[in-house]
Structure formats: structure tokens, C-alpha cells
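**Folding the chain**
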Amino acid sequence: MGMVYVVVSNPHLADVTWQHIDVLIPIGSGSGALTDNASEITASIPTRSYQPQPTEQAPNFTPHSGGGGHFRFRAAAPLKGEMTFPGQEYLILKLENIPVSDQAGLAVVSIHETAYRGDLGARKQSPRFYGTALGLVKQTPQVPQNFRADHSMVSAGQDVVLRWEGPDSLRYWIRYPDGAFEPVNPPVRPTPTSYGPHRHTPTRSLTRGTTYTLMAGTVDGNGQVQEGYFLTTTVHALIPEFDSGTRTPWIEGTTAPGRVTFSRDGAKVDHNGIPGTVEAGTADILNDVRASTVKGRSANSGWIDFPDTGITVHHGPNLDLGVIDAAGVNTTWVGDRTGAKGWIGFSQPGATVYKGGTQDRGTLSADKIDVNGLNTTWVGDQDGGNGWIEFPESGLSVFHGRGRDRGTVSAHKADLDDLVTGTALVKKRLTVNGGMTVSEGKKRALFTHPNGYVGIDTGMEVKGREGYGYVFRVNAGGEYGVFVDGPLAVSKTIYVWNKDGTGGRFL
């Protein structure tokens, strides 16, 4: 790129009246052309030493027209009026961003003006054309220049393309930040040239911001590199990767103002100055997690807060208490929230129920208990007003009411090795398989014989169906004999013997 300043001056002592000043730039690709792309040139008047007359407008310098191998830039009043150029003053016309053509040579810039008056005064009353020329020497650069990348920021996997202009007589290398370098292959051109564009794609993939250094030099007869010129350019990765880490006091998002600040103890996440939210699939914490609450992701999920006494489980957006669902809980004791009601202690043998926040044994209330064994002093109904069972050393005792009055055992069937009772009432039938002995005090009253008969030692009375009237008596009044009050039906044989056991006979 080139730049041209044209200084227009009024060498007269008197004022000059002028209409326009044209600067003609030769265009093309030959040695006499200044540029082959005049549309890229920017024209301006950066400063002026004289002030326009109060009735005149300040001039502009703009592209005007092209043709005949030239492109014209014109300085003139905006409304094409005449202007006064004070004597001994000057005007600067600037042309910049000129893409200078590659061929070395002399480019002649023509300058034309239309003006009159000056020191000639009244003899020059009409505008006349005046012209001059400015010679610009174009030299082929002897050093590389304009080292750049096609894109200053690239995505992962995107190639980096480096470009520069420089002499073909030099050798080029690209050096990486770690000191490694790689050679650049000479360009293949359709026609030989001494100076031109160069291009190279580094073989290393870009993972983070990297500064590339272009080294230009020659190689002597011994193969030693003689470095001569250095240019640098930096390319950034859209998402950088670092092998060893990054040190920074804080990191903040771009689309959202979330920020991570690094402190001596670790990191703090905040959003607009208040504690923020950390989202992760899994959090693996080595030691501690300190928080006021821990919540589920939805608004109705369960959450835990941490009072001074421990933890409290809630659910939903309010303070409603929640439910703990776990495969097991290992604890020394379990009690109510206030600590003033019942609680359960867990000892080596099992569990113990206490009441009132004390060591006094409490009451276990349940719809059903399924246990292998139950050790207790007594068992009663829930309100304590009905029957209850006590377990003395000899077995068990059944009571009714709140006192110690003996109660009644009701069962469909009782299978006993022995039965000791004061009074027995059999509603239907009494079947004794192994034999039976009925005693009155210590004296046997009735017994069953292994031969199948019943022996009566004292006596026996059998009453009617309703309990009224004797049907028959055996040994009534202590005397041997049978008294039958009613019909006697015998299906087989009756054997009768004397009182002393002699004289037995069948009837």
C-alpha cells in the first residue's frame, strides 16, 4: 500500500481565484502505472492553512472520473463555485490506501488546475488551464511485509492460513512459540517474478492463541541459515485449550453474567453479585459440601435444610416436611422432633421404646407385629380396660379388667400335656386319649383304667340335661352302690360283685 501527498501552493503575493484542481493517477499493471485498482484509494484534505472567504464554501477532494489510463481525483467547491486562494498559502491533498502495482518503475502523476488572477491582476480576468507533473518512483521491496492471517480467530479443526508479500530470493520459515520451526515451500507462479505474495498453512493444529513468527533469510554454501527478517502475527482459538492450566482472578460468561471468582480457599460462583447456581451431571466432592439448603431440580422436589440440630427434610416450595426413602438407616436412636415425646434406642440386643424424652420404658402401638420372639412382663389390650396376660415363672396367667381377677381363655382347641383347674365346664364333649384321673383334694375320685373301664373311688353324680335332678348316683353318701333315678338301658353285660370284692357275677 502507498500514500501520496500533493501540496498545492500560491506563490503569488496576490490572491488567486480557482475553480478546481485535478490529480490524475496512472492506472494499470505496467511499470509506469501507480496502481491497478484505483477504487481502493481514499482521497481527503487533512488540513489547510488558509480559511475560505465568508461567502465561500470549503473545498472537497473526491474521486471524479477515469479514462485514458488515468483516474481523476478533483478538489473543488461542493457547488462548483469559484474560490479564493490567498497569496503565499497552501492546500494539502491526500491520497492513501493506494494498492501499488508490482512492477518497479516511474509513475507520473499529472496535476491540473483552472485558475486566474494572482500577480497579473486584471490582465487575467478569465479562468485558464495550468498543469504540472509529479514523479513517483516505485521500487520493488527487498524485505517481506504485511505478514497476516486470513482469520485472526479460528474454530477447532479449522486450518490457519498465513500470507505475506516478499522477495522470492529469500527463504522463509514459520516459528512456533515453543521455538520449533518449519520451512515454507517456495510459491509456484505462472510467470517468474522477484517479489510477490506468499502463502503457508502451519502443520500444527491451533488449540489456543498462538503467535507465529515469519523468519526470512538466506542459506549459505554450507547449508547454514542466515536469518535476516522477522515478522509476527497472532491467531486466537475460538475455544482455547491449555495443557498446563490458566491463571486468572475470575471468569465471566459472555451471553450470561455468571462469574467464577477464584479465592485462596477455592472458587465462588455468583450472578450479578449474589451467589449463583452450579449445574453438573455429577458432583464428586472430596471432603465437605457447605450449603444452607440442598434441593431437587423441580419446584416440587424434596429439599434439605441444615439447622443447628442436624438436618430437616422438606418437599415442595414451602416448609412441608418430607419423607426419607432409604435402604437402611444406621443411628443410635430415633425420636420426635421436639425431643419431649417417645423415642427408640438401638442397643446390641435390639431396640427399646422410651417415653417423654426420658429413660422410662414406653408403649409400642402397632396394627401388627411380626417377630421371632417377644420378651415382656405382660400383654394387654390398647386401652388397658379389657383382658390381659401376665407371664409368671410358672407360665402365664389370664386376667380380666384392670385388676387381677382371673379371666377366661377362649379357644377353638387346646392341646395340653397337663390340666390343673378348680372348675372345668365342657360345653359339648370331652375326649381324653391318654387317660384321666379326677381327684378331690389329694384323694383320687375317678380314673380311667388301661383295660378301658372307668374306676370310681369316691362317688359320682350325673344330672339331667338342664342340670336339674339326678339321673344316677355312684357310691352316694359314701356307700358302695348305684342309684338310678329313671330308666337304665344296658346294651351289653353288667358285672356285679360284693362289697368285699367277692361273689362277682354277670347280669
